[in-house]
Amino acid sequence: MKRIVSGIKPTGILTLGNYLGAIKQFVKLQQARKDDEFFLFVADMHAITTRQVPAELRKRTLDIAAMYIACGLEKERTVLFIQSEIKEHVELGYILQSNTYMGELERMTQYKDKTQKQETSITASLFTYPTLMAADILLYDADYVPVGEDQKQHLELTRDIANRFNNYYGDFFTVPEPLIPEVGARIMDLQEPNKKMSKSDEFDKGFISMFDDEATIRRKIRQAVTDSIAKINYDPINQPGLANLLTIYATITNRSIDDIAKEFKEATYQEFKEALGNLLVDTLIPIQNRYLELIKSQELQDILDQGRDTASDYAFKKMRKCKKKIGLGRK
């Protein structure tokens, strides 16, 4: 049996990109890997690398937990919990800082981008958060971590840290492998298809929220940028907007992009967009209805309580062994 660990940060609005690139992929992994166990957490500690409104952060944290279940997560096979409720994440994160070099953290994309833009008020936690992310994974001896292409750098650093620790102290951490979805790992902005669909985007035309109503979903797809070629073809270079829409359709239906392109090869862009709008409505509205059942229910609280207790027990034992291995404490 293998263990798969994943987390999602509760910042901004949950989008279709989050669903297709992370949540749906996690659900598919569960269906495909019946013998594996899954640890899934809401990474609220990562959210506070920038200032958050407390009430909004708590709401988004519960929104994500409820949305995962609403999207088809098998709650009986998943340890679902809130990161900040397990103190060992931060404890191990500090120990891993002591096994990570400044140069490695300076090369991490999020920090590097902000420094290159000469942004001010960059917090120390933004600089060191990759070590907390490594702790999230290594604390539970993850065999696999589902990642998109833009997250591979973080997992590579985690693997480097684990190997460095193991080489110095002896085998202790499992060195995780990436699981990268073949399709749908990167859903692009509907108005600017050369950038990733972002839940923090201030222009709401560029993303579809998991909470958008039927009319809004259809409108955003109709207004999605395409091109003047007027031919249904998968060409990310010359037709990036259309390629993104084809990727969305293929990922939702679990079909190949080529198959979708062939099906609609005689269709106009308007006809394809109408079909995609219908598909999205049929997919997202039932998820929203299940979410509304869960969000204020005792069922959700019970799931999170059980997940906290299971994760906490595992994390406590792992940290106790870790501290003993590196010489912390009296015994």
Give a description of the structure.
- The chain has 331 residues and is mainly alpha-helical.
- It folds into 2 domains: 3-185 and 297-326, Rossmann fold (3-Layer(aba) Sandwich); 204-292, Tyrosyl-Transfer RNA Synthetase.
- The chain contains 13 helices and 5 strands.
- The strands form 2 sheets. It has a 3-stranded parallel beta sheet with strand order 1-2-3. A two-stranded parallel sheet has the order 4-5.
- Helix 8 (152-169) links the parallel strand 4 (144-146) and strand 5 (177-179).
List the helices and strands and how they pair.
Elements: E1 3-8, H1 16-32, E2 37-42, H2 44-47, H3 54-70, E3 78-82, H4 88-97, H5 102-106, H6 109-116, H7 124-138, E4 144-146, H8 152-169, E5 177-179, H9 214-222, H10 240-253, H11 257-263, H12 269-294, H13 298-326
Parallel strand pairs: 1-2, 2-3, 4-5
Helix pairs in contact: 3-12, 4-7, 4-13, 7-8, 9-12, 10-11, 10-12
How is this structure best summarized?
With 331 residues, the protein is mainly alpha-helical.
* The named CATH superfamily of the largest domain: HUPs
Q: From N to C, what is the helix and strand string?
A: EHEHHEHHHHEHEHHHHH
Quickly give the structural class.
mainly alpha
Strand content: 5-15%
Looking at CATH, which topology of the largest domain would you report? Rossmann fold
Total count of domains? 2
At CATH level 2, the architecture of the largest domain is 3-Layer(aba) Sandwich
The mean pLDDT is: 92
